[in-house]
Amino acid sequence: MSPLNACGRAFFALALGLHRWASCTMVTNDTGIAAGKTFDYIIAGAGLSGLTVGNKLSGKGYSVLIIEAGPDASWNPEVFDAEGRMFGSKTCNWQYPAYGDDGKLLPWKIDSGACIGGSTSINGMVWYRPTKAELDKIETLGNPGWNWDNLEPYMVAAERNIPPDATQIAQGAGSSPDVHGHNGFINTSFPTPLRIPGAVDLYKEALPLVFPGLAVGGDLSNRTSVSSASTMYTIWYDTVTGKNRRSSAADGYLWAPNQQRAKLTVLATHVVDKVLFGQGITATGVSFLPANGSTPSSKTFKAYAAKGVILSAGSLASAPVLERSGVGKPSVLKSAGITRLVDLPGVGANVNDQPGTAAYALVSAAYQNDTSIIDNRSLFAPEISLINIDELWPLTAGSFILDIASQKGLRSRAQALVDAGAAVNIFGAGAVLNASIDLITTHRRKLALSIFHLHGGYKATYLILLAVPIVEFLAESGSSTLYAAFWPLVPLSRGHVHINSSNPLDHPIIVPRLLEDPFDAAVAVAAARASRAVFASAPFEDIVANAYYDPPIGPNGTDAEYLAWYRKSMFGASHWVGATTMMPRHLGGVVDHQLR
C-alpha cells in the first residue's frame, strides 16, 4: 500500500462533499516509514484499544505510530458488509489453535481479528451495556477510579446511536435514548430493514415460561429493567448501496473523514517483536519485522518512543510481546531462551473466555416454507436473553449459591487455578474468583435482607432486575430450523497463554481451560437443558418436530450426557479478557490502575 492511499481515500470522500479536514492519517505497509524514526508514542496493535488511543493522542498533537500485524481489509466486503459472516473465515482472522492441559490440540479454533480494526472487524456487532455492578467490581480489585461513574461517560462519548424509526418500533425494536450516546464515532442502530420473523415472537412467549421472571421487551442497554430483547448492533445503513455496514473501530476512528490525523501513522502487516528498554526498565521503543513469512527475516527494525510504548494487541497477543521482551514468568522465559529483565509471573495468566455452543430444533414440515415463522434472511434479529442465577435455577439456585460462596469452595477453586498455571498465587486467584462469585450471588443476599426487612415489594423486584446475568441465550431461526446459542457470562474457569519460542511469527500456546470449574459445567448443563425446554414449550408445540443434539440426548438425558454434548460441540465465544491483568502485583497483577 502506498502511503498516499489513505489520503487518497480521504480526498475521495471530500470529493463527495462528505467532510472537510486539514490533513490525513497515513496508513502504509512501507517499513521505511517507521524504521529508525522517533515518535511520541508507539502502539502495538490497531484494534479497538489501539485505534481509539491512537486517535485521541494524535488528536492532542502527539506523534503516534501504530504497528499492526494484519493488513488493511477495510475494502473487503466480508469486513464492511454487516451481513457478511466472518467467523470461520480466514480473512482477517488469526484462528489461533487452542490446547488442552495435556498439550493436545482442541477441535476448535480461536477467532481473533487479524486486520486493521482487530476483532471489531469480524465480531458479531451486538451492542448493549454491561451492568453497573460489573464495572464497579473492577475497582474492588485494587483499581481506584475504575467504576461505573467514571467509565459510563466514555461509553456515551463513543456511541452515535441512531434511534429506531416508527416502522422498526412497530416490528419490535425497543429504544431508551437516555442510555445511549448520540455524538460519538461508533454507530449503533437496528438493521434496515428490520425483519423479525414470527419465531422471535414465539421465543418471547416461551422464554419467560422457562426462565421465570425474565423481563421481555425494550432496550437491552437499559439493564435495570430489561433482560430479553432484540438488540442494536454496531452498524449503519448506507443509503447509496442499500446495505447495512459494519461500524468497526477502524470505521469510526481511522477512516472517518473528520477523524484524519496528520500525526498518526499506521504501519500494517508488521509484527512487534519486543519492547526496547533503557535504564531503569523504561520503554524506549520497539523492534518489529514484516509479518509475511514463517521465520524472522535476518534484519529486524527499530522505532523509538519519546514518551511511551502502549501494548494493545489484545488478551492473546499482548502477553507474548511482554514475554519476548524479557518480562514474565521466569520458567517461560528460560524455556524460550529469553533473557529475563523483569520477574512478572502474572504475564499470560488469568485468561478467561466464555464457552459457547448451540442447540437446534427441526421445524415441522408444515412450517418449513412459512417465512412468517422462519426466515433465513433475518440476520440481526435474534432474541437475546440475559439470564441470572434465579432464572436459570428458579427452584434450586440457593444450593448453588451456598456451594460457590463457601470459603472452603473458594480455597479449593483458587488452589486449582494455581496448580493449573492459571493464577500466580492463591491470594490473587481467590480475589478474582471472589469478585466473580460476588457478582453472581450478592443480589440474592440483598434480596433476602430486603424481604426480611421490607416484606418484599418494589425493592425486592428491583434487586432481582439488578442481578448480574450468568448466561447469554441467543434464540433465532434458520431456513428449516430454530436454534439457540448460549454461553456462561461469568465463568470461574481460567486458562493461560504463553510463548514457546522467541520467534514473533509463531502463534502463542493458548490453553483456555473452558468449563474446568464445576460451577461453569453446571451452568452449561442448565443452559442446555433450558434450550430443550424452550423448544418443547407450548408456543412451539405445533412448530417444532424435534430438537437434536450430537451426540444424541433423549428427553430424559442425564447431566453427564448434556455435559458431554456441550464439551464436544463447544467453541470459545471470543470474549477474551486477562493475560495482562490490571491488579496489584502481589496478587498476580501485571499492570496497575494507571495501566503501567
Outline:
This protein is α/β, with parallel strands linked by helices and 596 residues long. The protein has 17 helices and 26 strands. A hairpin with a 4-residue loop joins strand 11 and strand 12.
Which helices and strands, and how do they pair?
Elements: H1 4-15, E1 26-28, E2 38-44, H2 48-59, E3 64-67, H3 77-80, E4 96-99, E5 105-110, E6 126-127, H4 132-137, H5 148-158, E7 159-161, H6 166-170, E8 186-188, H7 198-210, E9 228-229, E10 232-233, E11 235-238, E12 243-246, H8 249-253, E13 264-267, E14 270-277, E15 283-290, E16 301-311, H9 318-324, E17 327-328, H10 330-335, E18 342-343, E19 355-363, E20 383-387, H11 389-392, H12 397-405, H13 407-419, H14 426-454, H15 458-465, E21 471-477, E22 481-488, E23 496-498, E24 509-511, H16 518-535, E25 544-548, H17 559-569, E26 571-572
Parallel strand pairs: 1-13, 2-3, 2-16, 3-13, 7-8, 17-18
Antiparallel strand pairs: 4-5, 6-10, 9-20, 11-12, 14-15, 15-16, 19-22, 19-25, 19-26, 20-21, 21-22, 23-24
Helix pairs in contact: 7-16, 13-14, 14-15, 16-17
